[in-house]
Specification:
Layout lengths: L2 H36 L4 H37 L2 H7 L5 H52 L1 E4 L4 E4 L2 E3 L2 E3 L2 E5 L5 E14 L4 E12 L6 E11 L2 H4 L8 H32 L2 H4 L12 H38 L4 H28 L5 H4 L2 H19 L1
Antiparallel strand pairs: 1-2, 2-5, 3-4, 4-6, 5-6, 6-7, 7-8
Length: 392
């Protein structure tokens, strides 16, 4: 690498690392810590979660920080007439843009690795810590108030007291999705959260179970598990690696094919019986899934795959646009360069990306091309500005 390119690269790295550290720390302590405290997590749990939160923020902070970096460095060089001096020496302007393009490519690859490997790993650790935190929060509330009621979980617990992690003389009420309430009275119990299996576990000793329409049942020792509601139990696609997403898509597709096969067989039997009215009813409409949730889940998973590639590559396209625009704009005021370049990105790129993401999740458009629309716009704008830079 030539001396001039090394100089530009070192300037880019210095500004990038400084800006990335500042922005990440600000988002971590101002946004994450405040939200965690409002959610009931204590200082100890927040301190345990923070090291795993930082990788989750990096895919959002890296593109914005990279755009700020190239506008600062190239804007200062252009404003101080360094670009003019380089051109006057007969050096192609592309030679000083190449370090930023190289940096954009490396960070695009790094961002993808973060989203595909480190974020799922970090989220699993956060999930484990939060599970322990939920147990502590539940036990603290039961110890101080003697009861707790969670409508989202459909769970209500009343206790006479709490000894360490053991509930004394608890009465548990669990309401299922079908509005059937199970009531359990026991001498003692132990509560735990198993987020790997998405359930609440109760170990009970010496009690009675009351179920609607059935006689009461006594027990000496019993283990009960209650499913978490879907909005809590469901793993967000962002927290799954691409290999696991493909495995889940295979399962969803096989369920859909089995449902289609079942409808075809049912329709064939209905035709042999001459039951044409049954064939025309909704369950036999071709292509309709019985499980609407599976269809929505498949849309989210497919969108996540393509958005992960597209958003990671946005680092490269941000560099292409930011570097050429800053050189052409020719001002050393880095904030002016950044905001003039970032405002169109904020007002056009991100709304387009969010629109395509929502349309892809609902199967309105194909995410294979829809998630790249924003990057194509950045590429067109970047090539246009680069052409102006090379001409003037």
């Amino acid at each position: 690498m030539r001396l001039l390119q090394r100089y530009v690269l070192m300037e880019l790295l210095r500004v990038f690392l400084l800006a990335l550290s500042g922005l990440t720390l600000m988002l971590t302590f101002v946004g994450v810590v405040d939200k965690a405290a409002r959610s009931g997590l204590g200082p100890k749990l927040i301190a345990q979660v923070l090291p795993f939160v930082v990788p989750s923020l990096m895919p959002f902070t890296i593109p914005a920080t990279l755009l700020l970096t190239v506008t600062v460095v190239y804007g200062r060089m252009s404003g101080d007439q360094e670009i003019t001096a380089i051109k006057a020496a007969g050096i192609n302007v592309m030679s000083i843009i190449m370090p930023s393009i190289l940096m954009g490519v490396v960070l695009s690859i790094g961002t993808f690795v973060l989203t595909d490997q480190f974020i799922p790993w970090a989220q699993n650790n956060i999930k484990r810590i939060v599970a322990a935190g939920m147990e502590e929060i539940f036990l603290d509330m039961l110890s101080s108030q003697g009861k707790i009621s969670e409508k989202k979980l459909g769970l209500g617990i009343t206790v006479a007291g709490v000894e360490e992690k053991k509930l004394l003389h608890p009465e548990i009420r669990f309401t299922s999705r079908s509005d059937n309430t199970v009531r359990i009275q026991a001498e003692s119990a132990k509560l735990s959260f198993d987020l790997e299996r998405d359930e609440i576990r109760l170990q009970l000793w010496n009690g009675v179970v009351y179920t609607p329409g059935n006689d009461s049942v006594t027990f000496v020792e019993d283990d009960r598990s209650f499913p978490l509601p879907r909005e809590i139990a469901e793993v967000h696609p962002r927290n799954i690696s691409i290999s696991r997403i493909y495995d889940e898509l295979k399962i969803v597709t096989s369920k859909r094919d089995a449902s289609e096969h079942e409808r075809v067989i049912s329709a064939a039997f209905a035709m042999t019986r001459g039951d044409f009215e049954t064939i025309s009813t909704e369950p036999f409409v071709p292509g309709q899934w019985k499980d609407i949730y599976s269809e929505r889940r498949a849309g989210k998973l497919k969108t996540e795959i393509h958005s992960r590639y597209a958003l990671a590559c946005s680092c490269f396209f941000f560099v292409l646009l930011g570097s050429s625009f800053s050189i052409y704009h020719g001002r050393s005021q880095f904030l002016t360069n950044f905001f003039v370049c970032f405002m169109p990105v904020l007002l056009i790129y991100y709304p387009v990306v969010m629109l395509m993401m929502n349309l892809s999740k609902s199967h309105t458009v194909n995410p294979l091309w829809a998630m790249w629309v924003g990057n194509i716009l950045l590429l067109a704008a970047g090539l246009y500005m680069l052409r102006k830079v090379r001409m003037h």
